[in-house]
Specification:
The protein has one domain: Alpha-Beta Plaits (2-Layer Sandwich). It is built from 3 helices and 4 strands; from the N terminus they run βαββααβ.
Length: 103
């Protein structure tokens, strides 16, 4: 399994609004499960750099990346919500991790 971590550094004071938008995106994702939307989870910072939001997407393999991107590109609700989120974000980066073992 692969974890895709999208780390967003939010503008000062925009965490609450950003979290609300991402909760809507996650809810829309649940409704899109029949389209093959991957499992996702939302994390917010408790320490470290303030106003950090992390969205983790669980992929079975790198082969699942293209279908995931297709879902995002063709699902209008995702696009509308993400456009609302963009102005709240200062910067972002993406990381990929392979899960070596689960216990």
């Amino acid at each position: 399994m692969i974890i895709e971590r999208n780390v967003f550094h939010l503008k000062f004071g925009k965490a609450k609004e950003s979290i609300a938008i991402w909760k809507e995106i996650l809810e829309a994702s649940k409704k899109s499960e029949k389209l093959g939307a991957p499992e996702m989870r939302l994390l917010s910072d408790l320490s470290g750099p303030s106003y950090t939001l992390v969205v983790e997407i669980h992929l079975k393999s790198f082969m699942d990346m293209n279908p995931k991107q297709a879902i995002w590109a063709t699902t209008e609700s995702f696009q509308i919500l993400y456009q609302k989120f963009i102005p709240l974000c200062e910067s972002a980066h993406r990381e990929y991790y392979r899960i070596e073992e689960l216990i």
